Amino acid sequence: xxxxxxxxxxxxxxxxxxxxxxxxxxxxxxxxxxxxxxxxxxxxxxxxxxxxxxxxxxxxxxxxxxxxxxxxxxxxxxxxxxxxxxxxxxxxxxxxxxxxxxxxxx
Length: 106
Prior knowledge:
Strand content: 15-25%
Mean pLDDT: 97
Largest sheet: 5 strands, parallel
Shape: globular
Radius of gyration: 13 Å
Structural class: alpha/beta
C-alpha cells in the first residue's frame, strides 16, 4: 500500500511546524499557478535529484492529483531506499477542495 497523507493531515502537520520536506513533482508552469511551497523537482528530474534529498526528514510528494507524486514515491523507495515518504492524496486539487477553497485550481 502506498503511504499517503490527506490534505487535512498535511495542513495539521504544517500548522504544528513539524519538520517536513515538501517535494512538488509538477512542471514549472503548473507550480507557478499554485503551490504549497517546498521544492519544485519535476518528475523527470527526480532520478538526478534523489541523492540530494534528505532521507531522514519526512518527505511529502506533491502533484496535481497524486499520480505523478505516487510514481516519484515508488521510484525513491525502490531505487534509492527512502522509507520516510508520503504521497499527498489527491494532490493540490484535493488541497483546494478540502483545505483552502481560495487556493487556485487548474
